[in-house]
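User: structure tokens for AcrR family transcriptional regulator, please.
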Amino acid sequence: MAAETTSNHKRVRKSPLERKREILDAAVRLISERGYNGISVQDVADAVGVTKQGVLRYIGSKDNMLSMVYLENYNEGGNISEFKSSGLPGSTVDDLRLPAYLRYLVHYNSQRRMLVQLFSVLQVETFNPDHPLHEEFADRQDSIWEYYSGFNWRIPPSFSSFDEVRPTVRKALEVMDGIQLRWLREPAIDLNEEWAEFEPLLFSSPLWDGYR
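Assistant: Done. Predicted tokens:
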């Protein structure tokens, strides 16, 4: 009986990949609630139920943990390659539409509230030049534009090149950030419905008709 009891209470061993995922998930939740400066590695360890040394074995340092959380979680999903594989209208190589992709991105973000909250908290925290992601966020608009510019978008013929669409892209990203903040607050709004109201203002008629 004693041997059976011991066996029943054996600690479940997790693979390194499972443990790392568990640590990063805990970090996402804690940072989104308290901010990066409001948590410690020990807080993450306590949330997961391991030692601080155990957490550091997987993440290296607190700053490295933040990079993993942002780059491997928030930044990886909802990209243009995934959109092109979605089969949605405006996602094909010969008919790749920017408004359709942004609509897809808003829908994608509507399904990952905790990560959007994490991103929103970091946006404010990274005003501090000593923040480990300060440069990453300071260069965000330029890096997104560079990324978008690597694709062959179908745009209205009145634009001589995609470069002329840059002011519209900037406004769209600013509006998206603002709507997401409103979405995170109470009373709740529907993120997709709110974006649908702003999309015709950003990509207006008749200029963008047939290109949304």
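User: Anything notable?

Assistant: Confidence is low (pLDDT under 50) at residues 1-10.
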